[in-house]
Design brief:
262 residues; alpha/beta; 7-stranded parallel beta sheet; 9 helices; 46% helix; 14% strand; globular
């Protein structure tokens, strides 16, 4: 299916690796011009080079830096003639016990996982509405649906973004102008971040890493981890011309791990 995105412009945050890169690759395959962002210049340039080679007729631009910083946000927004698609993405805050967290820990989590996405949304949605097309996808976490006790910082900050989006996405001046805002909630995906988490778990438990990976995968009904490519494909679908009637939703991609009906 042609998703009707050829020639559009997208900003994909944290797109040098993992799920962000998966989204960038899927959008590029649909003919979308990209502004890529990440903190690591080397990895970002490597991703951009691969995409330019795969899609020589498209614009692939890079903005290096922490997207939570206003100057980096401004540079990323200015890198495209217009933005038709925004993919918000940021690494989650560290796990731990809430008794150990101080105010600065909470503020850092809120800045990265709630306030920065809101700032970028604010910067682009009115222009999208004026042009009659816009797609915003926020990569949050399956923990929004089923909170994980040691991820309190993430649970709180990402749930705040989720509540904000629930109201904003339903504003007629956006939804009625073909501007949609949805959230993608990943479960366990085979990314570098998951690998580090399982390596740490293996070290703590004294188990072999392969054993830890197998046990974790067996706890998922699909009996495997997700891939960045399939995550990106769902992101591209949400950004498609055909998805204009889908807004304000939380799409859970977890291989069936969440056991509830709703």
């Amino acid at each position: 299916m042609d998703l009707g995105l050829k020639g559009r412009w997208a900003l994909v945050c944290a797109s040098s690796k993992g799920l962000g890169r998966g989204c960038a690759e899927a959008l590029a395959a649909e003919g979308v011009n990209l502004v890529l962002n990440a903190r690591g210049a080397e990895a970002l340039e490597a991703t951009a080079a691969a995409l330019r080679q795969a899609h020589p007729g498209q614009e692939i631009r890079c903005v290096v830096g922490d997207i939570s910083l206003p100057a980096v946000q401004a540079a990323a927004l200015a890198a495209a003639p217009q933005l038709d698609i925004l993919v918000n993405n940021a690494g989650g805050p560290p796990p731990g016990d809430f008794r150990d967290w101080e105010r600065e820990h909470w503020l850092a989590a809120l800045e990265a996982n709630m306030l920065t996405p809101i700032a970028l949304i604010k910067a682009v949605v009115d222009g999208m509405a004026a042009r009659g097309f816009g797609r915003v996808v926020n990569i949050t976490s399956g923990a929004v649906k089923a909170p994980i006790d040691v991820l309190g910082l993430s649970n709180g900050a990402r749930s705040g973004l989720t509540g904000f989006v629930a109201g904003l996405a339903r504003q007629p001046r956006l939804a009625g102008a073909n501007v949609t805002i949805n959230n993608l909630l990943p479960g366990a995906f085979d990314t570098e971040r998951l690998g580090k988490t399982m390596a740490a778990s293996a070290e703590r438990s004294g188990q072999a890493l392969d054993q830890v990976r197998q046990q974790r995968a067996q706890g998922i009904p699909a009996r495997r981890f997700g891939t960045a490519a399939e995550f990106g494909a769902i992101c591209a679908m949400l950004c498609s011309a055909q998805a204009g009637y889908l807004t304000g939703q939380n799409i859970l991609l977890d291989g069936g791990a969440y056991p509830g009906t709703f």
